[in-house]
Amino acid sequence: MTPKAAENMPNKVTSSTEQVQDKDLPLVRTNVTIFIFLHATTLLGIYLGVTQPTWQGWVLAVVSVFLSCLGTTAGAHRLWSHKAYKAKLPLRIFLMLLFSLAGQNDIYEWSRDHRVHHKFSETNADPHDINRGLFFAHMGWLMRRKHPNVIKKGKTVDCSDLLEDPVVRFQRRFYVPLAFLCGFIIPTMIPVLGWGERLWFAFVTNGVARYVVSLHLTWLINSVAHWRGNKPYNRFLTAVESANITWWALGEGFHNFHHSFPNHYAASEYGWKHNFTTMFIDWMAKLGQAYDLKTVPDEVIEKTRLKTGDGTTTFGPSIEEIAKKR
């Protein structure tokens, strides 16, 4: 389970929340210890996976990483955080189980933090504010206590709709056993029972290493997709079009588009291009499991591009690259 950025612990900070600096926010030592263990074990798992590989193990690892990411992108992100589409009960249960496999805290907490991120993006009320550095936006925000403004401003974001879903309530209530069952016990026991893998080997490879890899693929959106790239829709945002990572992130790298039009179910105007999450939602729609897919009219996208874009395109050269060629 992803360590939580402590929010209810007393913070020894200055009286003015606007003047709080990183040095004023203590490390959450439990989270730091957990991350050290997870990453050390992951290095061992990758070494074993390379030096003692089995084709079944690699197939399972790739599939389970993919499913972990899908639970985040199609589930916690586009379905629950943004309400970009609606899903019937079987699909919601399926996505809930995949998100439990991902182990990134329960749906309510993840969606709450993400809504706060969008509403207060690039301020000290943003849980993973890129202005505090690439590492902080990637994973460092989970190693320090939350800035007081994250808590203060976060209380103004309405998330009551999330708890109206019984699937969300169920997962929140039983998150810890679900996360251990879906994220570690089942991925470990499949190789053991399926092809006689050693228990500890299966745990460090398809249990821990798979988990940490999927975490970093998600964290790339918080960090790299707010770092360097094109801004064809809104040059005033830190969110960028990060074409280099969007395939690995199942379509979430079209981030300047997403922050410009957060309720668009496809998170991109390019349809299925580098966007498996959009493919999945479209397939579910054809099966009758997904419906009310929200979009933005093409003319609105074009007007936004002309008004606030930086003049580039998602897959074209950046402003800096264009300037160098002149």
Automatic annotation (TrEMBL):
<keyword id="KW-0472">Membrane</keyword>
<feature type="domain" description="Fatty acid desaturase">
    <location>
        <begin position="53"/>
        <end position="263"/>
    </location>
</feature>
<keyword id="KW-0812">Transmembrane</keyword>
<feature type="transmembrane region" description="Helical">
    <location>
        <begin position="32"/>
        <end position="50"/>
    </location>
</feature>
<comment type="similarity">
    <text>Belongs to the fatty acid desaturase type 1 family.</text>
</comment>
<keyword id="KW-0275">Fatty acid biosynthesis</keyword>
<keyword id="KW-0560">Oxidoreductase</keyword>
<dbReference type="InterPro" id="IPR015876">
    <property type="entry name" value="Acyl-CoA_DS"/>
</dbReference>
<keyword id="KW-0443">Lipid metabolism</keyword>
<feature type="transmembrane region" description="Helical">
    <location>
        <begin position="174"/>
        <end position="193"/>
    </location>
</feature>
<keyword id="KW-0444">Lipid biosynthesis</keyword>
<feature type="transmembrane region" description="Helical">
    <location>
        <begin position="57"/>
        <end position="77"/>
    </location>
</feature>
<keyword id="KW-1133">Transmembrane helix</keyword>
<keyword id="KW-0408">Iron</keyword>
<dbReference type="Pfam" id="PF00487">
    <property type="entry name" value="FA_desaturase"/>
</dbReference>
<dbReference type="InterPro" id="IPR005804">
    <property type="entry name" value="FA_desaturase_dom"/>
</dbReference>
<keyword id="KW-0276">Fatty acid metabolism</keyword>
<feature type="region of interest" description="Disordered">
    <location>
        <begin position="1"/>
        <end position="20"/>
    </location>
</feature>
<protein>
    <submittedName>
        <fullName>Stearoyl-CoA desaturase 5-like</fullName>
    </submittedName>
</protein>
